[in-house]
Write a structure and sequence with these properties.
The chain is mainly beta. The protein contains 1 helix and 7 strands; from the N terminus they run E-E-E-H-E-E-E-E. The longest helix has 8 residues. The termini are far apart.
Length: about 110
């Protein structure tokens, strides 16, 4: 029997724009804070000829609410802050009874030379 752990997360809204020089910018703003069931935390490393890429993956389970429905419909407009890192939403799964929403989130560290 697995132990469920609930941890604090914050859900952020993302706003995309362009700077005066034409560079794309992403602005992050707090939408709401909540607690989520955290599961399946994993860390991957992919090594190519020149670079190492580290990627963390985690699943967050949230109750189905109007706010989480908004995330399901527009997952590209939101990010999760967990353990002081920003996590991008990679995939969203609703349970069949619409009681829970499972967010699969990823965090990529910058490329590192081998």
């Amino acid at each position: 029997m697995a132990i469920a752990r609930f941890e604090n997360i914050t859900v952020n809204r993302l706003t995309f724009g362009k700077s005066a020089f034409g560079e794309q910018t992403t602005t992050t703003g707090l939408w709401f804070a909540t607690r989520a069931k955290v599961a399946s935390v994993s860390n991957n490393v992919k090594i190519s000829e020149k670079y190492r890429v580290y990627a963390d993956i985690v699943n967050f389970t949230l109750n189905y609410t109007p706010n989480t429905r908004e995330i399901v419909d527009n997952q590209n407009l939101y990010s999760i802050n967990y353990r002081n890192f920003d996590w991008r939403i990679d995939a969203v799964r609703e349970t069949d009874d619409r009681m829970n929403v499972i967010l699969t989130c990823v965090r990529n560290d910058p490329l590192t030379s081998v």
